[in-house]
Amino acid sequence: MDLSKHLKNKFLAGLFILIPLIITIYIVYLIISSIEAMVSPVIRNILSQIIGQEVYIPGTGFIIFIVIVYVTGVVASNYFGKTVLTYAETFLKKIPFINVIYGSVKDMTDAFSSEKIKSFREVVLIEFPFQGRYALGFVTKRIRLEDKNLCSVFVPTTPNPTSGYLIIAKEEDLIFLDMHTDDALKYIISLGTTRADLQWKEKKSFLY
C-alpha cells in the first residue's frame, strides 16, 4: 500500500470516528454554555449580596444541566408530571413553526425510546423493495386477517433509522433471524460496516 492511500484511509477512518463525537460534545457544550450565561450572573448577584463580593463558581452550567435533566426525569415519572408535560406539549404543538421543530425532534427521540425499542420483537429479512432483494426489518405487531397470519414490519432507512417503511407481509414470506435488535440497528446505522460479528442464522417464529 502506497503512502498516499495509507494516509487517506487512516484519515477517513479517524474522521468518521471523531465527527459523531465532536457533534455530540458541541451540542452539549452549547446547552451548558447557554445555561451558564443565564444563571451565572444571577448566582454572582446573590452571592455578592450575601458575602459582599462577587464570586464566580466554575462549572455552574454543567451542574445545573445535570440537575435539570434529573429533575425532569423524576417529574416525568409520576402522574402529575406526565399531566403537566402533556399540556405543555399540546401548547407547543399549537405554535406555528415551533410545532414543526418540536414535533420532528420529539418523533425522532420517541421512535427509539426504550419502550418503542421493546416493540421491535424480532429481526427479519423481507423482500424489499422488489422480489429477489432483501432488507432488514423489525416485526412490530402480529395481525390475524381471516385465515392469514400477517406481520407489521418496520423497514428502517439507512443511516437514519428513524424513518422508514411500514409493510404488512405474510409471516411465511419473512426470514426470521437469530439476531438481537440492537445489533440489527447498529448494522443499519453503520451502512452494513459494523464490526460486530453478527449471527446470520435463520430461526423459527415462536410467537404463535
Structure description:
The protein is α+β, with helices and mostly antiparallel strands and 208 residues long. It has two domains: 17-114, no CATH class; 115-189, SH3 type barrels (Roll). 51% of the residues lie in helices and 18% in strands. The chain has a five-stranded antiparallel sheet with strand order 4-3-2-1-5, with helices on one face. Strand 3 (148-156) and strand 4 form a beta hairpin. The chain starts with a helix and ends in a 19-residue tail after the last helix.
Order of helices and strands: HHHHHEEEEEH
Helix percent band: 40-55%
User: Major sheet: order of its strands?
Assistant: 4-3-2-1-5
Could you tell me the strand content as a percent range?
15-25%
- Find the count of extended strands (DSSP E, 2+ residues): 5
As for the number of domains, it is: 2
Tally the helices: what do you get? Answer: 6
| Largest beta-sheet details | 5 strands, antiparallel
Gyration radius from CA atoms, angstroms: 24 Å
Structural class: alpha+beta
Low-confidence residue ranges: none
Q: For the record, give the distance between the C-alpha atoms at the N and C termini, rounded to a whole number.
A: 54 Å
Report the mean per-residue pLDDT as an integer.
76
Instruction: Give the overall shape, derived from the CA principal axes.
Output: flat
